[in-house]
Amino acid sequence: MAEKNIKISDAELKDRLVAINRVTKVTKGGRTFSFSAIVVVGNENGYVGWGLGKANEVTTAIAKGVESAKKNLIKVPLLNGTLPHEQYARFGGASVLVKPASHGTGVKAGGAMRAVLESVGVTDVLAKSKGSSNPHNLVKATMKALSELRSAKDVAYHRGVSLDKVFNG
């Protein structure tokens, strides 16, 4: 289950830049350039968050994105370096499918999805993105899929049964 307001030291979190976009605003004095940056932070041990930063300079935009990402951390259940089960999610025009993979497979994902999955600490996963390849929507769809993952312990608790009963019927 996704939790909010998680306290993790800044030293543990590693940030990854997903995309930078140069935005132009046309005024009567000419063109004004600014930048927006999508950043993903994670401790590579089950916690991940994403943020968007906008500023007139690239470094400032990235710093703002990192600060924003630290405020949006979620806990993702991991199982031996992979995911507990298959999950599908959509956000806007982007659709993502993430599947657990056997040890040694690696992170089979592209672009924005790879940054999110590596930040959360997944070492073996199969991922497919369908529809839009817009980095904003891909990151949000991937985060949505990860937040909907449930561990076997959570399933047992919500069903009100023992952990053995979840696996053995």
Q: How are the strands ordered across the major sheet?
A: 1-2-3-4
Biggest pleated sheet: 4 strands, antiparallel
**Spans where pLDDT lies below 50 across 5 or more residues:** none
According to DSSP, the number of beta strands is 8
Explain this structure.
- The protein is an alpha+beta fold.
- Helix content is 30%, strand content 35%.
- It has five helices and eight strands, in the order E-E-E-H-E-E-E-E-H-E-H-H-H.
- The chain has a four-stranded antiparallel β-sheet. It has a four-stranded mixed β-sheet with strand order 5-6-8-7.
- A hairpin with a 2-residue loop joins strand 5 and strand 6.
- Helix 2 runs parallel beside helix 3.
- The longest helix is centred in the middle third of the chain and has 13 residues.
- The chain is elongated and about 70 Å long.
- The two termini are 22 Å apart.
- 30% of the residues are buried.
Please provide a brief summary of the model:
The protein has 169 residues and is α+β, with helices and mostly antiparallel strands.
From the structure above, extract its key features.
169 residues; alpha+beta; 4-stranded antiparallel β-sheet; 4-stranded mixed β-sheet; 5 helices
Structural topology:
Elements: E1 14-27, E2 30-42, E3 47-55, H1 58-70, E4 74-75, E5 87-91, E6 94-100, E7 107-108, H2 111-120, E8 125-131, H3 135-147, H4 152-159, H5 163-168
Parallel strand pairs: 7-8
Antiparallel strand pairs: 1-2, 2-3, 3-4, 5-6, 6-8
